[in-house]
Amino acid sequence: MKPTEKKPLNGAGRTRLDRAAMFAAALSDPTRLRLLSLILHNPDICVCDLEMVTKLPQTKISKHLAVLRNADLVVPHRQGTWMHYSVPKPRSVVQRGLLAVVRDAHETVPELQRDLARLKTSISCGPIPADSPVQIEL
Fold first, then answer.
1. Which of 68, 127, 129, 137 is least enclosed by beta carbons within 10 angstroms?
2. Domain count across the chain
3. What is the C-alpha separation between 103 and 38, in angstroms, rounded?
4. pTM reported for the whole predicted model
């Protein structure tokens, strides 16, 4: 690949180091960490629920979800008029490890604890979040 060519956003043709850097870059923003944490703890969450919990505008959430999607950290699926998000099965040890760190971060990060508490009381179009988060095989 020539230095002036752009690499594909979906990760095709990337080295393991490129993919690890892509994951780290996607997780380098506090809003994306909040969104991913919420998705890990409610694996079929609607964008409207993310909006209610984070109190961020839908356009900002969608832009952050696009970054997470391009890094293969979340996958969308449509249910009627609503977009729901879940976490795909990790395809690498690095991805699995980073997801596990984000999943468990609520234990020590007060902002994530508050988000999860709000999520349990404000579900609007999906199932009530499970008491246990997504299991990531380590």
1. 137
2. 1
3. 9
4. 0.80
CATH number of the domain enclosing 91: 1.10.10.10
CA–CA gap between residue 115 and residue 36 (Å, rounded): 11
Backbone angles phi, psi at 11, to 5 degrees: 90, -5
Dist. CA 2–CA 21, nearest whole Å? 19
pLDDT of residue 17: 87
Kind and range of the H or E element at 114?
A: helix 110-121
Binning pLDDT at 50, 70 and 90, where does residue 88 land?
very high
CA distance 129 to 43: 8
Predicted confidence (pLDDT) per residue in 67-87, tens digit: 999 999 999 999 888 899 999
Within a domain: residue 69?
A: yes
DSSP 25: H
